Amino acid sequence: MKRILLPAGGALLATGLLAAGLSGTAQADGDVAHDPMARNNSDAVSIASFWLASNGAALRSATQYTWDSNEVRKVVSKGGYSPDGRPGTTAPTGSSKPTGSAQNVNLPKTVGKVFFVDGQGKFRWCSGTSIQSNYRNLVATAGHCVYDTDSNSATMDKWVFVPGYYQGKAPWGIYVGKQAFTHYDFDTYEDYDRDYAFVTVFNGITSNGVKQVDRKDFERFTGPKRAWGGHYYILLSKDAGRLGDNVGGQGFAWNQPTGKPVRAFGYPAAPHPDGNKPYSGVTPKHCYGNTTAKAVGASWLKIEEHIGLKCAVTPGYDGGPWLLNYSNAKRLGYVNGVTSTFADQDGNDRIDYITSPYFDGETASVYNAAKNVWSGKIVGPNGELYK
């Protein structure tokens, strides 16, 4: 278990995330850092409307988030792991109905894309999954798909989760991020050994189209609306219910032995370093294999304690879950990692390896803090905004 130490008597050099935290937005309780996302219910509705508008045009125009993953290098195996406590699990919940299959593997309903606007104003996406929580409202993904490591903002802008995403469609609605949780060392120092995040989301929103109204109804309406060309329009949104009630939630596992088989899911899209582009990012793909029994290090991101998996996917897969004990019949397992980095182990300019932070007791502390936080509704049955 790695610990980051500050130099005695030295000045602290603030990273982008820490600098954002100094403004008073970020908070930390021990190992757990938590940051607000949507400022209020009106902001949350506007975020959902941004992605839903024009039949999901913004969703379709988004591209995979590549951060600095173009620096694909070989990772180095080190010593074995020393878990910081006893192994533990939280059981999954949900329906066993499939969303489709790929090579005889039934794809889970819980997997989808997280969409956001990055620090350069570009529409981006990563992968993620619904994970079990007390209020059925939690998403697990990579920390770099939630926290902005490239600018002085804390979290990515306009962050949403779309389970079962396919070609601009949101079959179970769009879920706006309310509060983000990660490890203090990632929030403050961008420590990629803690590159995971858990995000509470509001109830989902679906769009029933746009309606033209008179000025009186327009002024009275509390949901998303727009005046244009002397006419008044309102967006007819509908509450889609809680995330976990709609798609279920994967379980969670920590301090587990390494070298065990997992199934990893995600939406790869970027080309390999050699220019070959085998994936479109339209549908989720999967990998299966044993995680590395030894720790994996990547010097270019100061990683010392990842686990690895042989898997020839590309960015876009970031944040996708590594599921331990996955049941192909129930489409459920236990999140025991999330895709963080990509590597080229045989040096042929093709990605053949992915890595994840090792989920230990400190990861469980972050998860446990997030799983007990309520989100609630943001629109009523008639599209009215909940205050």
Strand order of the largest sheet: 8-9-10-13-12-11
Helical coverage, percent range: 10-25%
What is the makeup of the main sheet?
A: 6 strands, antiparallel, barrel
Strand content: 35-45%
Overall geometry: globular
Structural class: mainly beta
* Rg result: 20 Å
Counted by DSSP, the helix tally is 6
Assembly state: single chain
What's the overall average pLDDT, rounded? 86
Distance between the termini: 44 Å
Low-confidence stretches: 4-25
Tally of strands: 25
Structural notes for this entry:
By secondary structure, the protein is mainly β. Helices cover 14% and strands 36% of the residues. The strands form 5 sheets. A 6-stranded antiparallel β-barrel has the order 8-9-10-13-12-11. A 6-stranded mixed beta sheet has the order 5-17-23-22-18-19, with helices on one face. The termini are far apart.
Q: What structural keywords apply?
A:
14% helix, single chain, 25 strands, 6-stranded antiparallel beta barrel, 387 residues
Chart the SSEs and their pairings:
Blueprint: H1 16-21, E1 27-29, E2 32-36, H2 41-61, E3 63-64, E4 76-80, E5 88-90, E6 101-102, E7 105-106, E8 111-117, E9 123-131, E10 138-141, E11 157-163, E12 175-183, H3 184-189, E13 197-201, E14 204-213, H4 215-220, E15 225-228, E16 231-241, H5 243-247, E17 251-254, E18 261-266, E19 285-290, E20 294-298, E21 303-310, E22 321-327, E23 332-338, E24 341-343, E25 353-357, H6 361-371
Parallel strand pairs: 3-9, 17-23
Antiparallel strand pairs: 1-2, 2-12, 4-20, 5-17, 6-7, 8-9, 8-11, 9-10, 10-13, 11-12, 12-13, 14-16, 15-16, 18-19, 18-22, 20-21, 21-25, 22-23, 24-25
